Each structure stands twice: as structure tokens, then as C-alpha cells.
Amino acid sequence: MRKGFTLIELLVVVLIIGILSAIALPQYEKTVERARAAEGLQMVASIARANEVYKLSTGSYATDISMLDIDIPGSNIITTPAKDPRKETKLFQYGTRAYSYLNSSKAIAHRLPQEEKYSLVVLTDNTIICYPHTPEYQDFCRSLGSGKKYDSDAYIVN
């Protein structure tokens, strides 16, 4: 008698591994993105606190991230069209204002690439919202917090 596996047995094992990986891979990617979002939430909360200190000393929120007394990692960039100075890391772009929430925001973190993912915004009332830029990230933003909508596009995180 020969020892070994038949072709059918090997195919069944490969099929089972394929099914398990098809189930596990999306969950793994969601977990990794949640960890990345936690990094962005931590930094945007720090920027918001620094902006609050800036407001206490000057009377208004900073419009330039370099005005804040906080060390933000990354390289300096200038965005267009608003010409806002920002800091950019491998995963996020950090700033002090969100374009669509200009009068009510004090910190922003765009997940890069910006138009394909989501933004985290801290409003002046300290509400943190997640704004998805694509339908793919709508469920992700909803899952970051309570799932409650802030407005038609954004979800409350805290």
C-alpha cells in the first residue's frame, strides 16, 4: 500500500483553507483599520485640547496648526484651495479646521488617501464625528461609535 493523500483530500483541504481565509481576511482588515482610526482619534483629540488652550489664551480657535503648542508628527504641507497648513503622516493628514465644518470645528484628521476613506472631526462642543468619503466607509464610521447620525453624512463617535 502506498502512503499519502489523494488528490481529492488535498483539494478538500485547500477548499476549506480558502473558505476560512475568505471569512477571516475582511475581519482582519476591519480590525487593522479600527486600530488606525484609534491613532487618528488620539491625535485629533490632542489637537482639539491644544486648540482649546489656544482659545483660552487668545479668545479664538487657531486657524493654523503651527500656532498650537503641540508636537504633531509628520511633514508640513499646505492644502489647496483653502491654503491651510497641515501635518501629514503615512496614514493621516491633521489640521485645525474641517472645510465643511469651518465655523464649528477645532480639529480634523483625514484618513489618507483623503477622498477614498474618512475624516475625523472634533467640533467646538467636543463632539467627535466620523465623516465617510465613500459608501464603503459608511458602515465603518457607524461602527466607530454609537451608530448615531450627526447629520445626513456623518456619525457621532463619542
SSE blueprint and pairings:
Blueprint: H1 7-58, E1 75-78, E2 85-88, E3 92-95, E4 105-111, E5 118-123, E6 128-132, H2 138-144, E7 155-156
Antiparallel strand pairs: 1-2, 2-3, 3-4, 4-5, 5-6, 6-7
**Approximate helicity band:** 25-40%
Average pLDDT, all residues? 89
Q: Count all strands and give the number.
A: 7
Q: Gap between N and C termini, in Å?
A: 66 Å
Strand content: 15-25%
Number of helices: 2
Spatial order of the strands forming the largest sheet: 1-2-3-4-5-6-7
Shape: elongated
Give the topology string: H per helix, E per strand: HEEEEEEHE
Low-confidence stretches: none
Summarize the structure.
By secondary structure, the protein is α+β, with helices and mostly antiparallel strands. The protein is built from two helices and seven strands.
Would you mind describing this structure in some detail?
The protein is of the alpha+beta class and 158 residues long. It has one domain. It is 37% helix and 20% strand. A seven-stranded antiparallel sheet has the order 1-2-3-4-5-6-7, covered by helices on one side. A hairpin with a 6-residue loop joins strand 4 and strand 5. The N and C termini lie far apart (66 Å). The mean pLDDT is 89.
Q: Keywords for this structure?
A:
158 residues, seven-stranded antiparallel β-sheet, 20% strand, alpha+beta, 2 helices
